[in-house]
Amino acid sequence: MKKIAATLAVSALAATGVEAEDKRRPRIAPEAVYDVAPGLGHFTDDVLFGNVWSRPELAPRDRSLVTVAALVSTGKTAQIGSHVARALDNGVEPREIGELITQLAFYSGWPNAMSAVTEAKKVFDQREIGPVGDSGAARIDLDAAAEAARSAAVQAGVSPTAPALAEMTNRVLFGDLWTRAELSARDRSLVTMAALIAIGQPEQLPFHANRAMDNGLTRTEVAEVATHLGFYAGWPRAMSAVPVIERVFASRAEARVTDTDLKVTRANATVAKGPEDYFTGEVQVSGNYRGDAPARIGGATVSFAAGARTAWHTHPLGQTLYIVSGRGWVQKEGGVKETVEPGDVVWIPPTVRHWHGASADEAMVHFAVAEALDGNVVTWMEKVSDDQYRR
């Protein structure tokens, strides 16, 4: 009898411990879930938020971007508000949320985007977030060679049947939307890829998965996007994306192994006038190149006529200039204007605002090298005035 009583006492203590543990465990799902579908409550608390959201393969900020992208693109408006709030808590800026919705208007349709705006606005109002404006930052420079190949493919495959769609794809979608600085190139690729998986468009995935990795997303992060979306878009769509992603990984690995040929970019093959928005005076750019992934390096030879120069600008990972000929000037904001001559090598640290160009009475040629961060190599600003240049 004493043995039975002891056993009952131990069982009671164990039950009390379990109940206490249940009370301590945070309950994330709405209360109705535990009344109607307790199993769903368990998986929500213990698996989705207790495990998946804490996995280090994607940062919490990225998981929020992926989740909001999936909800917007699939029109799940009832869930958008809570995840917009979570995204803000995870470091996503209000402007980035607005730009995510703008991006996905093109990839999942205007009705979904307009509905998402309504839900996001409720959260913004609750948090007293005022109207969101454009950032005013310079446009993102897309890789010229990659854009030329993409544009040619659109012209060949789309224009014969739908010429207006082809024209707007090149001019509006990639010429305008993808160059907006309100969302980094990496994040823009991330949300686009997430939306394509969520709406079940695997045929569009190879291009955008490759673009995402070119813009800085790692293999681990790409794979984790599919894993995360198993919970927000369903297992069938996540599983359908896996073979596509696998082929992208394989093709990129094969390219790294087999592409061992030397590449020569001829100096006179791609001569272009320096864009007036970014340069003052007569400037020519030649030998423009970009390294193949995983390399992030790119560069060009830039020829400045006497008096010609760049606008003020910065580089996210810095820039190196090798002076080939002539005499030039380089200056960081607030610093002394330095004279540079053939053989000189100039290093500009990351994010330092600066300009460079020819001297007032002699031309200059330099070779410029920089690395991309999240697909961005340079941020252009206002032009250098004549007074600033001669000072």
Q: What percentage of amino acids are in beta strands?
A: 15-25%
**Could you give the count of β-strands?**
13
SSE order, one letter for each helix or strand: HHHHHHHHHHHHHEEEEEEEEEEEEEH
Can you tell me the number of structural domains?
2
Strand order, largest beta sheet = 1-3-4-12-7-10
CATH top level of the largest domain is Mainly Alpha
Radius of gyration: 27 Å
- Termini separation comes to 101 Å
**Largest sheet properties:** 6 strands, antiparallel
Could you report the average pLDDT, rounded to the nearest whole number? Answer: 89
Number of helices: 14
How would you explain this protein's 3D organization?
- Helix content is 49%, strand content 15%.
- It folds into two domains: 55-140 and 180-258, AhpD-like; 272-390, Jelly Rolls, CATH 2.60.120.10.
- It has 14 helices and 13 strands.
- The longest helix has 24 residues, at 235-258.
- It starts with a helix and ends with a helix.
- Helix 5 packs across helix 7 (110-126), helix 8 packs antiparallel against helix 9 (163-174) and helix 12 packs antiparallel against helix 13.
- By secondary structure, the chain is of the alpha+beta class.
- The chain has a six-stranded antiparallel β-sheet with strand order 1-3-4-12-7-10, with no helix packed on it.
